[in-house]
Structure formats: C-alpha cells, structure tokens
Amino acid sequence: MEATAEIKTKARTKPDTRLIGELAPIVGLVLVVVIFTLLTKGALLSSGNLQSLSSQVITTALVTIGAVFVFGSGYFDMSLGGCLCFTAVIGGQVAIATGSLLLSFISILGISLAFGIAKGIFATTVNVPFFIFTIVLGSVISSVVLVMLGSESTIYLKDAVKEIPSLTFTQMTAVNVIALVVFFAVCLVLFNYTPLGVCIKNLGGSFIAARQSGINTRKTTIIAFIVSALGVAVAAFIILLRTRTVGATTASGVGNDVMVALVLGGMPLSGGPKSKISAGLIGAVTITVLNSGLTIMGLTTGQIQVVRGIVFIAVVFVSSFSYRGKLLPR
Fold this sequence. Notes:
This protein is an all-alpha fold. It has one domain: ABC transporter involved in vitamin B12 uptake, BtuC, CATH 1.10.3470. The chain contains 13 helices and two strands; from the N terminus they run ααααααβααααβααα.
C-alpha cells in the first residue's frame, strides 16, 4: 500500500511534459518580443515597424502553415523560397502583359500547383533523398528566374499595359488578414479533423507502418504538397499586391525562415505525430520578430544569419529530447 501511494505521489509531482511542450513556443515568442523590445529601446514595437512586421509575418506564415503538411509527412522541402520567387515573377509578368490581377493570380496558382504536384510525384517515385532534390531544384529555379528577367533585375506593375490600381494600407491589411485567417482555418480543419491529417502524421511517423496500415502513401504525399503549394501561391500574390514589384531576390530568405519557424513553433522537422498547424503561425511570428529585432540593432546580413543559426541549433537540440527515440523506423 505504501509503495502504491509513493508511486501515485511521484506521478502527481512529475511535470506534464506535454503541457510544457505546448507552452514552450508561446513562451519563446513572448521572450523574443520582450528581449528585443528592451534591446531596441522600444523601436521594435513602434507603429512603423509593426506595420512592416505585419506584412512580413503574413508571407512567412502562409508558406510555413502550408509547409506543415509537407514536413509533417516526413519530407524536407528546401525549394519553397525558389518556388515563391518564380511564381511571383510569373504573376508579375502576366500582370504587366495583360493589366489583369485576376489572370496574374490564376497564373500564380497554376504554376505553384504544378510545382507542388511535380514534387509530390518525384517524392513518391524516385528513390533519391528528397531534400537533396529540393536543394538542386531551388538552385535551378533561381537560375531560371535570372534568365527570365534578363538585364532587368526587377519588374514593376506600373509598367503594365493598363493601369493596375494600388491598394491602400487599410485595404492591404484587410487582404492580409482575410487570406491568413481563411488559409489557417482550412489547414487547421484538414490537419486536425480529417483523415488527411491522420494519414500525414502517420506517414511522417513511419512510412513503413503507414503503408502497412493501408494508407495510400502516394496520394497522401501529393495532397500534402498541393496544400503547401496553395500557401506559396497566396503568399506570392500578396507580395505582388503589396510591393507592386518582384525580382530575382524576392522571398530569397523565405526557405530558411520556414525551416527555422517550424522549429521555433515547436514542431520536429522529422514530422510525425508531433506535427501541428499552430507551429506554422507561432513560428512565423517568432522568426519575423527575431529578424526585425536583429536588423534594428544594426547587425549585418551575415551576423543575422549567424545568430539565426545558433538559435536554430539550440532549439533543435533542446526539442530533440522530447521525441528522440520515440519514433518508429522510417
């Protein structure tokens, strides 16, 4: 009896690691905001910088939320930045040639979905480490963009065959909020309340077990990449609307931001059962605030990358203890 009572007492006093894991990303976000608010003497939360932050968060969040489906399936996609840049440039060229934002969006959506489907098919048919393929794909896409632009490093919507009206700050804010809320809600339902989410988590946990349990791994993988492509398409169109200009350097850092954001949001890059949509949103806000704070402090691009790398390694190292050894063989 005494032994049983002692066991129960230890069980009650043992910390709830699941709750800690859920709260850690939120606590981390709060700490980043507080620390950089102090280091920048309040400049981080100035009205002008908050406007800039909101625009940057939207783009990163849309891509990262969609990427949860891919990374959750166990695939490491390093080509998201290149795909975003390519689709934005195509959309800008269509808008300039036709003067129509509708045709521009259709072209962006079509190109992005084509990339998503192609990556999904490659991942399920070619026996090559997928992350290597996406690294090469991202490099090739960047080169193609340079060839497409030729001597022009940037294209502007003001050069369209007919005037394309610009949006006011209020209108752009409304577009940003609606796009993010709708996409997040759709992804949340798909990932948490449909068989697709269950299949993705099982696939990321163990490909072998998922296939043996009757999951159509090919179909699940392709759908995951399609959802990710939708996020890229919406983000590319919003960039075009907001900046009214695109070029070879558009969204150049998004690929790395997505990877870091997922980790900061509390999701293991190996995917699996611990994958969660909230990681995309929380992580996107955290990495955006981190980038902004470091920039305000006057750090160079190289120094910012070093700090980001240190943060990424530290978070991966700490978070790995919560899932190391708990996954089934891939």
